[in-house]
């Protein structure tokens, strides 16, 4: 039994390293984005000049040239380039995961992470940098789909929430490591090499992720779907089942696949799957409407807006990352006891209170420690609620036959919203000031209403039973 638990835990942790790289890749830009803004200033102006040439635009657009020439717009485009990749990656890798297997695609993602880290560190201009960041985004988007899917499919229901949530733990660990790495590198005063080192260090965990995947089993549910019953049985014997009866578990998976096989040719976007589709889209939209990606991508800039100096702003980023990690660990311990819905309720209330404090801090001009305190509460609320729940919930609510497409839809929605938040935050911060945080807070009132009225509880329900609970026949 101990061996079963060890194989299961080891495989889940290795798969969840995709989440660590996800977090690191998403947050590492925050330490370098101010430097990149200065470094690429001339190229931003060239872009604004090109797109603002009178012969290239209409007379109506010509009136808007001052806005087009704002470098904050082009800086937002560059910072969000990785997030454009995540949108594509979230859509791109779901079907190949059905064809070639979850583990195989995770290896591909590991290779993409490595290429992105090395390429971003060696970038020679705004276009090469954006291209390599986009490649990393492809890996992030793919990992957000495949890592939790793989873990959900190897895990017994009684521990599935905690094991899938390891992905979220690793995401926030990656965010903390990125903040910590950025801060430590800044203390080394490496000059022009500083921003390159910030991106280059990601190559180490990327290489480890790729190699360790060779020591994990393939998904038993994918193996059964491909007729590899004997290998599936061996994997289930290694990772364990809820009842302890491997043959019964295999039979349940086969029955579920048989029931779903008739629907494989049905359009995914159909009335039959409307309820899980809407649940996935709503939880993913609300996740980003909190403004979490603005905080992750622009943490030092936000604290500088509140009056912190450069090094102090990076140090405060580490505090945010550490808080994120601690409250994610707390959520991991209770997600299968209290359930997904209660954590979402606590998180929603925390969002509303903290964003109100942050908006007041900027509005009143008190800033400083009030803003830092507000963001500590904000990140704690996110880690304990949405952050811990989203990938678990999305991986649970779709039947076997459409799980890959459902996971891809949820991740696509999450990343398209993340891209929009990251792209627009510099402009919104310049033009709206404190109001941008008030808007995020108002959106979280909407999330609270949604959780109270529409979100079902999936705690402890076997994957094959959840579709019945959602009325899918």
Keywords:
single chain, 0% strand, 473 residues, 25 helices, mainly alpha, Growth Hormone, Chain: A
What does this 3D model show about the protein?
This protein has 473 residues and is an all-alpha fold. The chain has a single domain (2-216, 262-469), classed as MFS general substrate transporter like domains (Growth Hormone, Chain: A). The chain is 81% helix and 0% strand. α17 packs parallel to α23 (403-432) and α18 runs antiparallel to α19. The radius of gyration is 22 Å and the shape is globular. Residues 53-69 have low confidence and may be disordered.
Give a short summary of the structure.
The protein is mainly alpha-helical and 473 residues long.
Please describe the topology of this protein.
Elements: H1 2-27, H2 29-39, H3 41-51, H4 59-62, H5 65-68, H6 71-79, H7 81-92, H8 94-100, H9 102-121, H10 126-154, H11 157-187, H12 194-200, H13 203-212, H14 220-225, H15 229-239, H16 246-261, H17 274-289, H18 292-305, H19 310-338, H20 340-364, H21 368-384, H22 386-396, H23 403-432, H24 435-453, H25 463-469
**Global structural class:** mainly alpha
The SSE string, one letter per element, is HHHHHHHHHHHHHHHHHHHHHHHHH
The largest pleated sheet is described as: none
Radius of gyration: 22 Å
**How much helical structure, as a percent, in the residues?**
over 70%
The CATH homologous superfamily name equals MFS general substrate transporter like domains
CATH architecture: Up-down Bundle
Number of strands: 0
Strand content: under 5%
CATH topology: Growth Hormone, Chain: A
How many domains, as an integer?
1
* Alpha plus pi helix count: 25
CATH class: Mainly Alpha
Mean pLDDT: 84
Task: Label the overall shape.
Answer: globular
The termini sit apart by 35 Å
